[in-house]
Amino acid sequence: MKEGAFKLQWPEWCEVFHGDLNLRVIDLDNADFSKLRRINGSINLINSQTRTMPYMPKLKVIQSDGIRPGVVILNNKELRDMRGFVNWDKEVKVIGHPDFPIFISGNTELDTINLPKAFHKPLSPTLCEKRLAPGYNIQFAESLSLATTLITLILSATIFLYPMSLGSGIVYFVPGYHKETVN
Prior knowledge:
The chain crosses the membrane at residues 140-162. By secondary structure, the chain is an alpha/beta fold. The protein has helices spanning 125-129, 138-166, and strands spanning 16-18, 21-22, 38-40, 43-46, 61-63, 71-74, 93-95, 102-105.
């Protein structure tokens, strides 16, 4: 959706939403999600210019079909903060894919360290990114990690093989086929 394109108005009376809630097509500047309690589907924010997630104070349950994640926040280059999205002090149940109920990735400005504990679960893509601060470059980190691994491997192989390359007067390749020559 192009910036400035027509966006849908959110019905402020809505308490239960059925289907996938794609926030990118909603006018988030004027949307009032204060009555929304449940989403029977997933909530998605993908490829948007949004800087903060909308506030949904009464949202208690996000239940997708179990095949897809319940929350997908993907490739939002301007997204910086999502702590106010829902009230994480109260119980918020996200039901989705068993391994990835919440999928957050590709949001280069998002501060993932300060995300609620609900987002920091084993196998979570958030943990895979290991981002420490906004502006973290995952490609740079992966190349740095690969370079470090290769250098460590080369150094350890060199340290292990170098003494063997110095040799000694007696070298046995196959027993019986090599004999020591004495001069």
